[in-house]
Amino acid sequence: MISSNEYGSHSWELLLTVDHQHEEVQKEFLLRVAGDLHIGGLMLKLVEQIKISQDWSDYAFWWEQKKCWLLKTHWTLDKYGVQADAKLFFTTQHKMLRLRLPNMKTVRLKVSFSSVVFRAVSDICKILNIRRSEELSLLKQSEDALKKKKKKDKNSKEPFTEDILNLCNSPVSSGLSGSPGLYSKTMIPTYDPVSGTPASSTITWFSDSPLTEQNCNILAFSYPNCSPEMLAEMYQPRTLADKAKLNAGWLDSSRSLMEQDVVEDDQLLLRFKYYTFFDLNPKYDAVRINQIYEQARWAILLEEIDCTEEEMLIFAALQAYHVSKLSLSSEAQDFTCESEADEVEAALSNLEVTLEGGNSSNILEDITDIPKLADNLRLVRPRKLSLKAIKPYWFVFKDTSISYFKNQESAQGEPIEKLNLKGCEVVPDVNVAAKKFGIKLLIPVADGMNEVYLRCDNENQYAQWMAACVLASKGKTMADSSYHPEVHKILSFLKMKNWTMSSQTVSDPESTDMKPECFVSLRYTKKYKSKQLVARILEAHQNVSQMTLVEAKLRFIQAWQSLPEFGLSYYIVRFKGSKKDDVLGVSYNRLIRIDIATGDPITTWRFSNMKQWNVNWEIRQVAIEFDQNVSIAFTCRSADCKIIHEYIGGYIFLSTRSKDQNETLDEDLFHKLTGGQE
After folding, report:
1. CB-CB contact of 380 with 454 (8 Å)
2. 554, 620 contact by CB (below 8 A)
3. All domains of the chain, ordered by start, with CATH?
4. Which site among 67, 218, 305, 336 is 20 to 30 Å from 115 CA-CA?
């Protein structure tokens, strides 16, 4: 027997496995340790035993059974709770990861597997030169998408080789945090705001970054990388339940990749998770704008978001234009920038707009007088057992309410009805070709949503009333500075749709080398012949042909943001007290309960009315309290409830951003709002 004094009364043997590439050296070591040994001392003891001369600074202990990193080197084994049965893996913290970007390009780079996902995404975005990393996150592909991919690979005669952009020499590969990003070196524009190419004044910056000039072009430009066959083989959600599956795979931002079963060389999707794109600037955001554009493009092509035929043709025209512009190498590869005088003038102009908040000539008038709208409109109320009743009335829009009267003369008396639009859903009901300009209002009432349609006579009337309704739904009046820009945005979108009124001649579809199947979803390729689609896309193309490259992308993003379903992430939930499942739509400013069978909104709750929210982790139930003693509770059926909890907290966190923050984020506040108390 060996006396206890020989080894110490509290020592034991601990099995450690080392992750290294030297085949001739053993990988498992049995060390005798005591509970008061700190992690740093254990590392030193192990490295002395390994006897391999190399840099071990990026290595740390991973506790396999507990799925956690032992990163606090001053903590003792006792404090961590490590005992003789623990299996500790001594491995690198930074490992290779394949990321599929919104433009469907795959990049391979080293990422921290020990940092929380929020910080890892921040480092990834610095390498890719994408500002506002808090808007993005990492997503695991849905099971249905993976099944379709395996089926495609099985059926393909030739082995598919993915074109991967290798960014292995990124700053994080050495275990250091990511570079500060090209955009933060100075306030000189990084990109030409017209073409999106690296500006001549900053082109040398790319030489010391893994994002070389060539790689930057791959990320900042769109290339026709989609064939009709490829589109047909990709997973397309058919129902709300299918759309809910797409959002089930978001990683937990408060935990590391290793803690979430991600292994080296796995493939994840890098996507914009939060649809609040803050401070988009073509001079610094060429990659970011292009990736947002690509995420929007694929969402429309794969019908992850619904749009009308008219809208689909606008999107197709912007894409077709975009690709044809890129084929003109003199345009796409022109790295010449504006003259210095022009840059200074543009910068001063931008600064002026930023400081003034746009045209503010009527500031005093706005403060003292809240504008109102008054006009003849038609009211449509759907009836279940008869045709829709359409009647003309005199409407008055003031504050956040609409009142309507029998005629203008009776407007001094009591209205027939007053509709309070605060918290309502506003949906466009427009067909420009048919001269239909409608506004669908879903107004919250005690037992659900009251459905009302307003019909306008022309574009200008529609834009004014639609903008007023959108602002009122957010609790804002027409005195708000965003009213006139909203009117202008609506009018510009209507103008893009109004191609039938153009006097320009349309190019001959026969002579156009265009594959329309690449620009519209499968529904429309089945509905129309190729020649018909080309002709219609060319008609729509007339209204966008004068735009610059970056402007075309921004218009596409703006049109995407105008769609009724924009920014909604769906989850299947079961509300407390209900016997059937519903769909919950999470947006940047509200939650919507939706009937899973019909897709109709049942109730809307605004974040602005929310008092508090929490999670009962034992029964995985999210509970939310709103003003006026309204409270809801639900369990999530299609994903972990932590994902919805993080979505709500994340949107509230993003609403606190301001331009004077110098792009620094309060990470502690993010985790406080999204982490929960699990």
Report:
1. yes
2. no
3. 11-92 (3.10.20.90), 372-478 (2.30.29.30), 569-675 (2.30.29.30)
4. 218
Q: Are 552 and 282 in contact (CB under 8 A)?
A: no
Is 102 in contact with 295 (CB distance < 8 Å)? Answer: yes
State the chain's mean pLDDT as an integer.
81
- Name the band, by pLDDT with cuts 50, 70 and 90, for residue 499: low
Q: What is the DSSP letter of 239?
A: S
Please report, to the nearest 10 degrees, the dihedral formed by the alpha carbons of residues 454, 458, 460, 461 taken in order: -30
Question: DSSP string spanning 267-289?
Answer: EEEEEE-S----S--TTT-HHHH
Please tell me the distance from the alpha carbon of residue 318 to that of residue 555, in angstroms, as a whole number. Answer: 8
Helix (H) or strand (E) holding 94: strand 94-100
Give 70-82 pLDDT, tens digit per residue: 999 999 999 999 9
Pseudo-torsion of CA 655, 113, 641, 570, nearest 10°?
Answer: 60
The closest alpha carbon to 521, from 266, 103, 276, 238, belongs to 238
At residue 425, what is the residue type? E
Alpha helices (H) along 250-339: 286-301, 309-327, 329-332
SS3 state of residue 642: helix
CA distance 291 to 280: 12
Contact yes or no for 82/63 (Cβ under 8 A): yes
Neighbours of 409 (CB within 10 A): 9
Residue 110 phi/psi, 5-degree rounding, is: -85, 135
Both structure tokens of 554: 């921004």
User: Cα–Cα distance between 671 and 412 in angstroms, integer?
Assistant: 53
